[in-house]
Amino acid sequence: MDTSFLSSGPITWAALVAFAVFQIAVLKGWDAIGAKLKTREKEAVSPLAIELQAVKLNVERQGEALNAFKVEVAQKYVTGDVITRLEGRIDGMVSSVRSEMQTMRAEILEALLGRPPTRR
What we know:
82% of the residues lie in helices and 0% in strands. It has two helices and no strands. It has helices spanning 13-76, 80-113. Helix 1 (13-76) packs antiparallel against helix 2 (80-113). The radius of gyration is 31 Å and the shape is rod-shaped. Keywords: Membrane, Transmembrane, Transmembrane helix. The chain crosses the membrane at residues 12-30.
């Protein structure tokens, strides 16, 4: 078997430049793969962010409508004691829905990203 190609010889400038170009190509490829994965991650999260903003707007609108309803009912139909109990129930329900939404959002992000979401 001919093993003359295994014999060590002097390193030429051409071989050194070729090796440097090879390393640069590998690093750029690695960066391109990382950028592509980041893009996929952002694409997966952006519909969630849009949906979350829509839900926040709906909750805010419902809160405003609820306050207007509370004032109207208080002025026309109900005594102060009844409205206070009703407000407590409604506030408990809204806070429960908010906590469920936060929990669901965290679980969805964790499932999509494979790690717990970071707080801003």
